[in-house]
Design goal:
The protein has 356 residues and is of the alpha+beta class. It is 58% helix and 12% strand.
Length: 356
């Protein structure tokens, strides 16, 4: 049976039970105090208890029949009205199953359970549509980025094939550089996929130690670019994958070094415990960034103010990986442009006492 039919029968059954109880009460109080052979009314003649029963039972049967018909018809109508929002939800689900994620229910009416369900479904469709669009952009950008080293390799080989005087050592060196970049891009994509799947074991981690290790690892690059780094902060306990959180910290510090002033730039790395969890902040000097650009920096293959390449520019997945790792650890990554130029990246992770 359909839900509408079940509700209709439930309404009708409840109405029949209520009517039967009412008739029983009337029967009891009407006939209980009436002896079978006592005459009622004035004069020598009046109805007996048997006469009252004979008159009452047919009318009671007619009333019960009316309640049954009324309950079925009214219950069917009311059930249809109550279940109408489910039809809209079903239609939206079918459209979403066919790939149409732009449809929204936008259910009118009071804020009841059906309205909350419809609004939740609309929010889910909006998030799913945004996620699919993001995945499509990522796939297109990844294909483009992976195609670039292959195209460069093919060009170098064609030039070497046409020019017999090509220096083999120079060719091998250039091919090695292109190959290293392709490997770095592939490893970054694998890391991004691993973090997105949350396929890791959670362990106690101290972000302050990870920050010190990341700055020590990238210190030669900072010195080469004339960047001064400063690490401050107390113990910052969190829970997660040490390898992924180390990659998160390294990516933020590397991004702060690469996208900095040509000389005399500064990078500040700090950790702290806050009421809402544990924080890691990486701040750097650099060019002035408009707010519209800052909001897109976590997108894959986005490199600062332009898609420029350099020896240490990376593959454009640093902040995207940092964002994915942060989400996998139930945290948030906030990017804010500095008034004097540069960027402030703040990672907030739930401490061990605030884990979901």
């Amino acid at each position: 049976m359909s839900v509408r039919l079940k509700l209709t029968l439930s309404y009708a059954g409840f109405l029949m039970v209520a009517g039967a109880l009412l008739l029983v009460v009337v029967w009891r109080f009407l006939l209980f105090y009436l002896p079978p052979d006592v005459q009622l009314g004035r004069g020598d003649f009046g109805p007996t208890r048997t006469d009252v029963i004979d008159a009452f039972l047919p009318r009671a049967g007619q009333a019960m029949l009316f309640l049954l018909v009324f309950g079925l018809v009214g219950g069917w109508f009311l059930a249809g009205r109550m279940l109408a929002p489910l039809s809209a939800l079903t239609q939206a689900t079918r459209l979403a199953a066919r790939g149409s994620l732009s449809h929204r229910i936008e259910l009118p009416g009071p804020q009841d359970e059906f309205r909350e369900l419809a609004d939740s479904f609309d929010d889910m469709l909006a998030r799913l549509e945004a996620h699919v669009a993001e995945q499509q952009r990522f796939a297109a950008n990844a294909s483009h980025e992976l195609r670039t080293p292959l195209a460069i390799t093919q060009t170098l080989l064609e030039v070497a094939r046409k020019d017999p005087d090509t220096d083999p050592r120079a060719l091998v060196e250039r091919l090695g550089i292109v190959n290293d970049r392709a490997i770095a891009l592939t490893e970054a994509l694998l890391l991004l996929s691993r973090a997105d799947r949350q396929a890791f074991i959670r362990e106690p981690v101290d972000l302050s130690l990870l920050a010190e290790e990341a700055t020590e690892t990238l210190l030669p690059l900072a010195e080469q670019r004339g960047i001064t780094m400063e690490v401050t902060g107390a113990t910052a306990p969190a829970t997660g994958s040490p390898a992924l959180l180390q990659q998160l910290t390294t990516n933020l510090v590397h991004n702060a070094i690469v996208h900095n002033l040509p000389g005399g730039g500064r990078v500040w790395v700090s950790t702290a415990e806050a009421a809402d969890g544990t924080r890691l902040t990486v701040e750097n000097t650099g060019a002035h960034l408009p707010p519209a650009l800052v909001s897109t920096l976590v997108e894959p293959f986005q490199r600062g103010s332009e898609r420029a390449r350099s020896d240490h520019a990376g593959v454009g997945l640093g902040l995207a990986i940092a964002q994915t790792i942060t989400r996998a650890h139930h945290g948030t990554l906030g990017l804010t442009a500095r008034e004097d130029g540069g960027l402030v990246a703040t990672v907030t992770l739930p401490s061990r006492a605030h884990l979901p």
